Amino acid sequence: MFGGDKRGKGRGMGEIETLIGPRMTIRGDLDFSGGLYVEGTVHGTIRAAGGDAVITISERGLVEGEVHAPTVIVCGQLRGDIHASERVELGDHARVEGDIHYTIVEMAAGAMITGRLIHAEAKPKRLTGPESASPSGKETREEARAGKGSDAKP
Fold first, then answer.
1. How far apart are alpha carbons 81 and 83 in whole angstroms?
2. Cα 95 to Cα 92: distance, rounded to the nearest angstrom
3. Smallest Cα–Cα separation from 72: which of 7, 120, 26, 23?
4. CA distance 135 to 111
5. Is 146 helix (H, G, I), strand (E, B) or coil?
6. d(Cα 89, Cα 2) in Å, to the nearest integer?
7. How far apart are CA 62 and CA 2, in angstroms?
8. What is the pTM of this model?
9. Is 13 helix (H, G, I), strand (E, B) or coil?
């Protein structure tokens, strides 16, 4: 899309096997293989079968639901999470409202994400709450309220 991948894998127009036209609205989940090009609207989860599947959402396209595919190219709007095992490409008019789970991400200037970028190899981290004792030795909120902290007077 942006001229970076020239290995002959080819994600061009010749590889599209399924087209959802600009005046088409689909309500429900989709399973596809090969190339899927969305110019219309899809309300539902889109899942790819096969390791070479590519979904492209055009500038006029809208998907409301999760997308699961090896390669996801967004030039339009997507309201839902992206789960891409290989690559995510965001064009300059892309608008994503959701988390992007990726291995490689390519983002053009002007693309917008309202959500998180989560690398596929990143391990989830558990956050500790504010109620736990801090390692600095300062008192907890309960101790401060009860007057049992280090600054409490007898």
1. 7
2. 9
3. 120
4. 41
5. helix
6. 9
7. 21
8. 0.72
9. helix
